[in-house]
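Tokenised fold entry reproduced for everyone:
>
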Amino acid sequence: MTWTIGKLEKGKAPTLLQAKKGNELIQALNALGNIRIEKGAKDEVHYGDDEIIITYGSTARGITVTCDPTLSISNFTFQDGLLTNVEPV
């Protein structure tokens, strides 16, 4: 799941003062504040409404998780389940 929050235009609805638009932003930010990294059966990233789960399936090799550029500004590299590098995109 990815979020696309449309741009606001001056003098036009919706605005951040309207609950629906404000809640879209809050939902996306809440998920970014709840990122978990877990051991699992395979390498994958799950984008949920209220969390992001990065699952790695093997510690025998390094994995690279490349985030959607609309959601993040870095690539994260893991080796043996540990974060080894953060590279700006």
Observations:
- The chain is about 15% helix and 35% strand.
- The longest strand covers residues 82-88.
